[in-house]
Amino acid sequence: MAARSRAAPKTLSKVATGVSGFDELSRGGLPRNRTSLLLGGPGTGKTVFALQALVNAARIRRQPGIFVAFEEHPAQIFENAATFDWRLPALAKDGIFFLNAQLSPAAVQSGDFDLGGMLAILGAKKRELGAQWIVFDGIDVLLALLPDPGAAMREIYRLRDWLSNNDLTAIITTKTDSDESAAVNYGFLQFMVDCVIRFDRRLEQSIPVRKLEITKYRGSDFAAGEFPLGFGPAGMVVAAPEMAEIRHEASRERVSTGFAALDSMLGGGLLRGSSTLITGAPGTSKTTLSGLFAESACRRGERTLYVSFDEGGERIRRNLTSVGIELDAHFKSGLLRMYSGRTDQVNPEEHLARITALLREHRPRCIVIDPLSAIAKTGALSSARAICNRLIYRVRDENITAVITALVDGDDPQAEATALQISTIADSWIHLSYLVHGGERNRALTIVKSRGTQHSNQVRELVLSASGPALADVYSSGGEVLMGTLRWEKEAEESARKQRRRDEYGRKRRELESAEADIAARIAALQLELDRQRAELALYARDDEARQASSGRLKNERKRLRSVAAAAGTASAPARQRTARTSTAARRNGNGGRESRHGG
Amino acid sequence: MAAGSHDMAGKPARARKGDAAVTTVVVMRLYIAGGAPNSVKAIANLQAICEQHLRSSYRLELIDVCEYPQRALDDGVLVTPSLTKVSPGPATNVIGNLSDTGSVLAALGVRARAMK
Question: How remote is the C-alpha of A221 from its chain's centroid?
Answer without folding.
Answer: 35
